[in-house]
Design goal:
single chain; about 700 residues; alpha/beta; Rossmann fold; 2 domains; eight-stranded mixed β-sheet; binds flavin-adenine dinucleotide; binds S-adenosylmethionine
């Protein structure tokens, strides 16, 4: 074994993204479905020359072909988690039929995960129309209400208090499926007829599905075409033709019985030798109760885990802190880099999460944010939006007059308007997350060190206090304690990460202001409930001063005046401040995922973070910089899903972008480039998984 510390003593100095990595990271613009309804009300796609469902009716087809074809609901009875993957979400009839069957089944799984891919999802109004005279109107209305902007990539929508989890994957199946990490118990193959749409049934697509089949998985489809049967057979499925419903003579059912399993794509993918125990006790510790820790804890608890959160501070905020607020929003970047894609996914996710929260209990506003553009003109902004194919319910380019009208204050420049963005009171949000059932909080206790100990049949992690006493013990532990994660990594001899820490001060005053929504640009400002505003924020590296400073207030108010012309009361006694710290990695992306193993065997592939061996049960969720409100809820879901083995809510390229192992990969690449060697094992291979 090579101690990892020899390879990289301090992880995170390498910041460059590899070329192939960059190419995989672009998201394709989404072209929404064009749908025509015939005289009988059957929806058709003129582009594909096919109907969305047969004349027997969408629900009858869904039940006979897809549910019965997969032995549902019988096969999911008594499961904790059951995952269905669908190629072709279409008008979501199969989803609603499955949801309805799940709802009425007394033996339903605790959680149903439904992953569905579509290159041309319907516009909200078409989805609404498709379900107007259909059964399950109430479920359809929930789906329509939660329907996301048609932006490429993944969208997690939760229903039934998180028991029904829909993972929408908007994009072409051949591009996006290799980016998805899940393990399905049942497949619905529903991508128009293979002769009209061979792309959806390509043998490589079927192979990719086979690699995502859980043991005992089944598949069903309307098509019995020879090419489909052959493709499924080469993907390890055994096919059977059965009598079809209505006028359809036969449909296809299949079960996965591969002769050998080739590296399955599962959420917990672990290299050989580090395989996870089959049913580990579902208990976890989260160190730190900031936005990251609270988000991880809530996501784990929603998956049925018992979570102990340990926080060194008292959890109750004082009155001043309770009036704190921060902004959340996406960004539009011509290069479609991982930052832009991640912020987009995060902003959409946080905004959806807020939609389910009571604004009295968790003060927030998601009615839009304006980001002032200092460089581009309106035409260039619109061209950028068009080139990226971003819809108007996600972002719009506004001229200065329209931006001013929306904001209620004078803005001198054009602005990007993000309709679903806004602001949140973070401490109320944290309190809400920590109040989820299944979470126990130990406040006012500092974790000084970690240790391994025998717990039942498996090793477990212990969180120790300053006297070496065990504060909590569990098989999984998440370090969500910002830069202090390094102290705890050092306590077990693991390499630490290169993190920078920057002091920030935000300023607040109570006064009546005409501002109607949050603004960002060089700094930010948001209207507080009642009266007053909060603006900020300063940036001073390596500065430990916890007290608000008048000079910093003045700097914030100068920014405020440049943003929108507003000014504070003249008397400094009316100015209030909040000081905090932002923690960054070298590449300004968070650390979210399992920690790489402390020792790596010679010959281990170091070319992709996803292939690295991991330290069993130890995870990170930190270094959120200045964007935790945008990123922590989604990355908390990512960390929890990696622990629980449920479908991952981000594409593989973005999982890699936040993977704590990425710095090892970059260091290995840099080392082989320096030595004039070929890239680390397999670096030139880009296998479609
Ligand atoms: C002035 C200012 C303005 C900001 N504005 C925004 C904004 O508008 N939008 C936005 O998204 N972000 C904003 N940020 C950034 C945001 O506040 C941070 O990204 C966020 O707080 C990071 O959350 P975290 O949970 O990772 O870390 P933290 O909030 O630092 O939480 C870590 C927790 O771990 C605890 N802890 C540490 N060590 C231990 C230990 N050993 N044992 C037990 N507990 C421990 C700490 O007490 C702490 O509560 C701002 C930051 C500043 C400073
Ligand atoms: C028959 S419809 C699906 C019907 C759907 N399952 C339902 O329950 O309403 C087929 C879907 O496949 C999608 N599709 C076609 N080609 C695709 C591709 N290459 N990648 C992803 N989706 C594709 C279409 O946009 C269409 O929505």
């Amino acid at each position: 074994m090579v101690p990892l510390v020899l390879l990289v003593c301090v992880l995170g100095r390498g910041t460059r993204t590899h070329g192939a990595e960059k190419r995989r990271m672009a998201t394709q613009p989404i072209e929404p479905a064009r749908i025509e309804w015939d005289a009988d009300g059957v929806p058709r796609s003129p582009a594909f020359g096919d109907v969305y469902h047969a004349r027997i009716g969408a629900q009858a087809q869904a039940r006979a072909v897809f549910l019965d074809g997969n032995g549902l609901p019988r096969r999911w009875a008594g499961c904790c988690d059951f995952t269905i993957a669908e190629t072709g979400l279409g008008l979501a009839h199969n989803l609603l039929a499955t949801w309805a069957a799940w709802r009425t089944d007394p033996a339903r799984p605790a959680r149903l995960h439904y992953v569905s891919i579509d290159a041309h999802p319907p516009r909200r109004e078409d989805l609404e129309r498709a379900h107007r005279d259909q059964p399950h109107a109430e479920l359809a209305a929930q789906l329509v209400q939660a329907w996301p902007p048609l932006v490429g990539g993944l969208h997690r929508l939760d229903f039934e208090n998180g028991a029904l989890r829909l993972l929408l994957a908007f994009g072409d199946v051949q591009e996006l499926l290799p980016q998805l990490v899940f393990s399905a118990d049942a497949f619905y193959l529903d991508g128009f007829a293979p002769d009209r749409n061979p792309r959806m049934w390509d043998p490589r697509v079927l192979k990719a599905l086979g690699r995502r089949a859980a043991p005992g998985a089944t598949a069903a489809t309307w098509s019995v075409a020879r090419s489909v049967r052959d493709g499924l057979a080469s993907a390890g499925f055994v096919c059977e033709r059965v009598a079809g419903p209505g006028a359809k003579r036969q449909t296809l059912r299949a079960h996965h019985a591969p002769r050998h399993r080739s590296s399955p794509v599962t959420p917990q993918s672990a290299p050989p030798g580090l395989a996870r125990p089959p049913s580990p006790p579902r208990r976890a510790i989260v160190v730190g109760a900031g936005l990251a820790g609270a988000s991880c804890a809530a996501a784990l608890a929603a998956l049925g885990w018992e979570v102990t959160v340990i926080e060194r501070r008292a959890v109750q905020p004082d009155a001043g802190q309770a009036r704190l607020a921060g902004i959340l929003h996406a960004t539009v970047h011509a290069a479609e880099n991982p930052h832009a894609r991640l912020l987009r996914a995060g902003a959409l996710y946080t905004s959806r999460l807020l939609a389910g929260l009571d604004a009295q209990r968790v003060p927030h506003d998601r009615s839009g944010l304006l980001r002032i553009e200092q460089v581009l003109g309106l035409t260039a902004m619109q061209e950028r939006i068009d080139a990226l194919g971003l819809p108007a319910d996600f972002v719009q380019a506004l001229d200065a007059a329209s931006a001013s009208a929306r904001a209620g204050v004078a803005i001198d420049h054009p602005a990007w308007y993000y309709p679903g963005a806004g602001w949140i009171a973070p401490l109320a949000f944290i309190a809400d997350r920590l109040a989820q059932p299944g979470i126990r909080c130990i406040a006012g206790s500092t974790v000084h060190a970690l240790a391994r100990a025998q717990g039942g049949s498996h090793d477990e992690w212990q969180a120790l206090d300053g006297e070496g006493r065990v504060l909590a013990q569990a098989p999984e532990l998440v370090l969500a304690n910002a830069e202090q994660a390094n102290t705890l990594l050092a306590s077990i001899g693991a390499p630490v990460f290169a993190l920078s820490r920057e002091r920030g001060q935000a300023s607040r005053f109570d006064a009546s202001v005409p501002l109607r929504c949050a603004l960002a640009g060089d700094g930010y400002v948001l209207p507080l409930p009642g009266a007053g505003l909060l603006c900020g924020a300063t940036r001073s590296p390596d500065d430990d001063d916890p007290m608000p400073r008048e000079a910093d207030h003045r700097a914030n108010f100068e920014r405020l005046s440049r943003l929108c012309g507003l000014r504070p009361p003249v008397d400094p006694a009316a100015w209030q401040g909040h000081v905090g710290w932002r923690v960054h990695t070298g590449d300004r992306l968070p650390l979210a995922g399992p920690l790489p193993a402390r020792s790596i065997a010679p010959g281990t592939r170091l070319d992709q973070a996803r292939l690295l061996p991991r330290e069993r049960g130890l995870h990170l969720a930190c270094a959120f910089g200045s964007r935790a409100l945008t990123l922590a809820p989604l990355l908390g879901e990512l960390v929890a899903a990696r622990i629980a083995g449920t479908p991952l809510p981000l594409e593989q390229s973005l999982i890699d972008a936040v993977d704590p192992g990425r710095f090892i990969v970059r260091a290995a690449r840099a080392a082989s480039a320096l030595a004039g060697l070929s890239p680390p094992m397999g670096a030139t291979r880009n296998r479609a998984a």
